[in-house]
């Protein structure tokens, strides 16, 4: 099972999904495809930059995610 398929299945179950991805361009393409396939609200699938090899990237991801969840 790929990340795309996992996000697709979760969105079909009415979950809100935050995709943490290294390539925002690829993730945005996947997001648009998921939105088209599910006809869900754009706010149900979010894309945030995340490079797990970079501590700074992880910190920034957590900071943005925390702000979104407030």
Quick structural gist:
The chain has 70 residues and is α+β, with helices and mostly antiparallel strands.
Structure description:
The chain has 3 helices and 2 strands. It has 70 residues and is of the alpha+beta class. Strands 1-2 form a two-stranded parallel ribbon. Strand 1, helix 2 (24-38) and strand 2 form a beta-alpha-beta unit. Helix 1 packs parallel to helix 2. It starts with a helix and ends with a helix.
What form results from the Cα inertia axes? globular
Assembly of the depicted chains:
single chain
- Lateral strand order in the biggest sheet: 1-2
String of helices and strands: HEHEH
Helix and strand topology:
Elements: H1 3-12, E1 17-21, H2 24-38, E2 45-49, H3 55-68
Helix pairs in contact: 1-2
Index terms:
two-stranded parallel ribbon, 2 strands, 3 helices, 70 residues, alpha+beta, single chain
């Amino acid at each position: 099972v790929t990340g795309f398929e996992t996000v697709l299945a979760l969105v079909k179950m009415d979950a809100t999904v935050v995709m943490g991805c290294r390539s925002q361009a690829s993730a945005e393409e996947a997001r648009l495809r998921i939105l088209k396939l599910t006809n869900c609200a754009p706010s149900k699938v979010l894309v945030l930059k995340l490079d797990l090899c970079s501590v700074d990237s992880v910190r920034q991801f957590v900071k943005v995610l925390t702000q979104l969840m407030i």
